[in-house]
Amino acid sequence: MIYLDNSATTRQYDEVTELVYKLSREAFGNPSSLHTLGLNSSEIIRTARGRVAKALPAGGEIVFNSGGTEGDNTAIYGTARKLRRRGNKVITSKVEHPAVLESCKRLAEDGFEVCYLNVDKTGALKLDELEQSIDDKTILVTLMAVNNETGMIQPIVPACELVKNYNKEHGTKVIFHTDAVQAFGKMSFRNAPFDLITISGHKFHAPKGVGAMYMKSGFTLPAFITGGGQEKGYRSGTENTTDIAGLGLATELSYADLAGIQNKLCALSDRLRDGLSSELDDIMINGTDEIGLELDDYGKRCPSILNVSLLGTRGEVILHTLEQDEIYVSTGSACSSHKTGDSHVLQAMGLGHREIEGAIRFSLSEFNTLEEMDETVEKVAAAVNRFRRLGSFR
């Protein structure tokens, strides 16, 4: 099996699987209970929180939740609810994850003004539009760090600086949130300037159904889920001790050798890109070919994602052809893969139906090998050439 759909979900680290299994048998006490089992569970969560905190800016709150979708919803609705008396304008982009776009859509239905920034042909945000869009009604800017379909590293650092400068000049408090789901575990966030950061465990080898939100010191959100007051009242509900522990360990493992992971992803991405470009004509890289490894490398591509259009084919057909050889890829976001219609990200980049129809997303992890890239190139080339010869999709 060759798994190249890591932007949809990742295989857990073996150490994480072992820890989660062990704790599910030994640390099943409710963290809110006052007896020894409960106190042990509470200590496990405290340790995990410390592990996650080491990978994020110092001094903020780490609130555990169910993952990226809940985190994005909490950030957007929570900020809107808290700051509505100050203003009613939210700024986002046309290429965000559905968790952000649908939250903003609901805000618009509730009377908020939502401004959608355009992107250029590579999928990069247009900062001049952000500068022109911020005004005295603006309360929130929410922009993703790395695009989940193309891997584009968005200019969120200068975007955040732009927002902070506006706040200083006008005495306002526009909040900056970033969906870091595709970037966390692959890039450093230790010195990130953002007010709110969303992460999701299953994107970096932790269990599914667990994530966290970082809230910068000095700004906290009202509870999105109320009840027993867990997570210091920010997110009620009995904590998922075992998976939170897995999230903490996966964070520690990812950042223990971040440079090594980045170097391997670069080698894998280069091998796959070069192989496909060599073996196939009429292939187009969607986004940019230049790879970046830091948040400051905006306008470049995170090496974990390679999105290509195989012209003269249909991506879905190629996907299922590869599946027969146990090679697993994607045609776009897993969160919207069962919906009909072209990719909203590729549409925003100005691609036509033919380019979008032939798009395939390869998303890599450190578990992949160079030999897998070579085999994938061979199988993709065979599938594409076969269907092009048949002429079924021209």
From TrEMBL:
Its cofactor is pyridoxal 5'-phosphate. The keyword DNA damage does not apply. GO terms for molecular function: iron-sulfur cluster binding; metal ion binding; transaminase activity. Residues 2-374 form the Aminotransferase class V domain. Gene3D superfamilies: 1.10.260.50, Aspartate Aminotransferase, domain 1, Type I PLP-dependent aspartate aminotransferase-like (Major domain). The keyword Transferase applies. This is Aminotransferase, class V.
